[in-house]
Amino acid sequence: MDADIVEGTITCVIGPNGCGKSTMLRALGRLMKPRSGLVELDGRDIHRVPTRAVAEVLGVLPQQPTAPDGLTVADLVARGRHPSQRWYRQWSGDDQDAVARALEQTGLLDLADAPLSELSGGQRQRAWISMVLAQGTDLLLLDEPTTFLDLVHQVDVLDLVRELHQQGGRTVVMVLHDLNLAARYADTIITMREGRVVASGPPADVLTPVLLREAFGLEAVVVEDPVTGGPMVVPVGRSTV
């Protein structure tokens, strides 16, 4: 089954552990080549597009990213400008402005000189998102941006992602584990199982008892979210079918 990423929307990829969510994101980001099938970027095979040209279009935040010891927030965010560097044009005022703008957008301008290691989990995730923002792309691929965060910080990060989407019209694709957070923040949900897409569409069309049983082996009741009016998944137990 094909999966289309619609420009200017937020897409969440969900599915059980080991189903291929991160692999899909890596393929979309040209970090790996799929054994079969094709990833197209603006109608072109992404593996036929020069690496620098891809980096100018999409930014990727991998799962559980790591940084060298002693790196400050500003140092990390500045790394997002590397794709814009040339041998004849190194660091410039435009780069400095892009870093400052990314830090301001994520609320980290006052922490620019702080060591990354001293930040809270939520702040650190904001710093990584700032690095991707500094790259200046309109397409963001985020692999489990809420991993290891408590619920308050998960909502904080996802609110930031939605705000960045709404303000800049960015296209966002992110892998999430929490079905109800995916339902709340996504325009489109892609559901995977065993390396293939089993459903793709609006949350209300995808998060149904039948599809949850097929994809997750989960018996669930789907009710109306009292806040958004969208679907809310209430687990019942493991499916015996």
TrEMBL record:
SMART domains per UniProt: AAA (SM00382)
Domain ABC transporter: 1-219
Subcellular compartments: Cell membrane
Transport listed as a keyword: yes
Cited CDD domains: ABC_Iron-Siderophores_B12_Hemin (cd03214)
Presence of the UniProt keyword Cell membrane in the record: yes
Entry-linked Gene3D superfamilies: P-loop containing nucleotide triphosphate hydrolases (3.40.50.300)
InterPro entries linked: AAA+_ATPase, ABC_transporter-like_ATP-bd, ABC_transporter-like_CS, P-loop_NTPase, Siderophore_ABC-ATPase
UniProt GO MF annotations: ATP binding
Superkingdom of origin: Bacteria
Membrane topology: Peripheral membrane protein
Name this protein carries in UniProt: ABC transporter ATP-binding protein
Provenance organism: Nocardiopsis codii
